[in-house]
Amino acid sequence: MTSGSKECTKIIEILLHYLTIKNSKNAQGLVGLRNLGNTCFMNSILQCLSNTHDLRDYCLRNTHRTDLNCRANAALMEEFAKLTQTLWTSASNEAISPSDFKTQIQKYAPRFVGYNQQDAQEFLRFLLDGLHNEVNRVSIRPRVPVEDFDHLSDDEKAKRMWNKYLEREDSKVVDLFVGQLKSSLTCSECGFCSTVFDPFWDLSLPISKSSGDVSLIDCLRLFTKEDVLDGNEKPTCQRCKARRKCTKKFSIQKFPKVLVLHLKRFSEARIKTAKLCTFVSFPIKELDLREFASDNMNAIYNLYAVSNHTGTTLGGHYTAYCRNPSTGEWYTYNDSRVSPMSSSQVRSSDAYVLFYELTNSSRM
């Protein structure tokens, strides 16, 4: 068979697969979202979240209703759940309008009023924060007194600080998306090391400006590399009681079930925002993050969704690549259009926000 014949056969197979999807009432989760006017950033993130297995089931089973917080009107969570349910139970594969959802997200975050192009990662943060607030199991956030944990071991200190966080912020959204970051500050003068443990919803990773190949692991190493704080950046050493030159380093203390990695493609230049179009290679399966763990714990992740940005900072477009949690097949979501794709096509220089799921073998 010639290379041309092979290419023809491949195209026919994809077309047949696509037609099967269009005519199947069981092709769940393969419904597009209409673009309401520069809302591709929103559609891309919604499709990534719709293919987040545990969050999808949380909505499909209406479990969210038992968690609705009496302090909030819960309209955003209800519209998100309704949209997710429609995407997964619709008998038709016709694209649906997310206008009711948009009405609620712009009430929660007025920055999304109107139809200007927005940043997908910023939208994700606002949306997860809004959903969390409406299903927070803590109705009245208690005042958390300041406590001194410096006499404790790092592991015990991390547990105490995580429990203090959960006293105020405890929801299904936190269960899935929030991890804990360890920041270590070491004094160059006396060697004293102080540690702080903070929750994180995603990690914004710098991209190396190297002309060669860049991998996701390279970006993570750049994020966690030891930095020297000197000059105006000198912090106060707790032991010396004076500002000292210090080194600062990040590591991951607690890995979330869903790890969201944001590739920092947009940088503020003097005159305008510039975009880095560097190709960053990332694994589809078995992303091993043990080297970034505070205690070398097992942390293996599989990719299940990517929010992509094509174009420039002045005019761009967002799409999503998602692995269907029911079938394991990959699909392209381009606003109203949904089409099958190969896992080999998932990596591109357009990748902007990566969604990874912790494997069962890594779960504690």
Automatic annotation (TrEMBL):
SUPFAM superfamilies: Cysteine proteinases (SSF54001). Keywords: Biological rhythms, Cytoplasm, Hydrolase, Metal-binding, Protease, Thiol protease, Ubl conjugation pathway, Zinc. GO terms for cellular component: perinuclear region of cytoplasm. Pfam families: UCH. It comes from the Eukaryota. GO terms for molecular function: cysteine-type deubiquitinase activity; metal ion binding. Its EC number is 3.4.19.12. It is an enzyme of class 3 (hydrolase). InterPro entries: Papain-like_cys_pep_sf, Peptidase_C19_UCH, Ub_carboxyl-term_hydrolase, USP, USP_CS. It is found in: Cytoplasm, Perinuclear region. One of its GO terms (biological process) is proteolysis. Signal peptide: none annotated. It catalyses: Thiol-dependent hydrolysis of ester, thioester, amide, peptide and isopeptide bonds formed by the C-terminal Gly of ubiquitin (a 76-residue protein attached to proteins as an intracellular targeting signal). Residues 31-359 form the USP domain. Belongs to the peptidase C19 family. USP2 subfamily. This is Ubiquitin carboxyl-terminal hydrolase 2.
